[in-house]
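Ticket #4471: structure output looks truncated?

Reporter: J.K.
Steps to reproduce: submitted the chain below (287 residues) through the standard prediction queue, then opened the result file.
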Amino acid sequence: MASFLPASDSAADTTAIPAVPSAATEKLIVESNASAGAGTAAAAAARGAGANFVRALPARGLTVAFFAILFVWLYGAEGGVGTDQSSLFGLHALLMSLFTFIVLQESVLCFFAPSFGLSRRARVAFHAVAGVAAAGCLAGGLAAVARYKDLTTEEVNDGEWLFPYFHLFSPHAWAGVALGSVFAVQLVFGLLRLAGPATALTAATAAGRSHALVGAAVYIGAAAVCAMGFQDMQSSDLAWLDINANMSAAMGMDDGYMQDSSYSVYAAVSPILIFLIVLSVFFTKAL
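Returned output as attached by the reporter:
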């Protein structure tokens, strides 16, 4: 006999009624979603860090090439790197190159192209440590060249040297003093910001934008001063053309330090590398 009752009344309803999730279940769902979101964010951060590393490769590769040429030039033609009269210039050149193309450059790149997925707070801390390290390189480089000038000027006064190695007689020297002064103010300003409230560290503030702008200008200026240094030393080396044969023999150089020698070419090529390095650093931000 047919039933005229609704199916739900005529037979047992076996459809499962969704259970209301308990508080513990809801917490588990939220934590699971949060974990998945964190994993996605971490993967995106890793991809971004890898991309930044690739973007910074040209600048860092050119920097390695620059230091390779610098060491060949210093040890082949400028007496090496040390603390006596013949090698103090090399110490000066090395410390100022480290100041510019390692410490300052990496403190710029840590914001232009952070390669290790560092948080902004970690990058600010690295930037501050790099600033202090840069100050050490700058102080050491200036002390080395000052002592070099002291020792060499004594020999000039005795008539043994033909080129005037006096203090602050070249545009390179004056530009270096001006650049160092601006860097000192920039460093103090940055450390004072670091000691202030956390909100002061954001680049969105006027102080943050000013610090970033002056920092970029200091890096560019330091690179320009380094290029001027190659010109300065190249001029003094080539001013000795009439005694270069004796100097070359004493230093064991094969072709001498003449205007067309390999060592003079190293000094001439280095400013070109410097220009390409700086261009590459700023392209990491533009790309």
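Triage note (M.O.): checked the attachment and the full token line is present. The chain has a mean pLDDT of 78.
Status: closed, working as intended.
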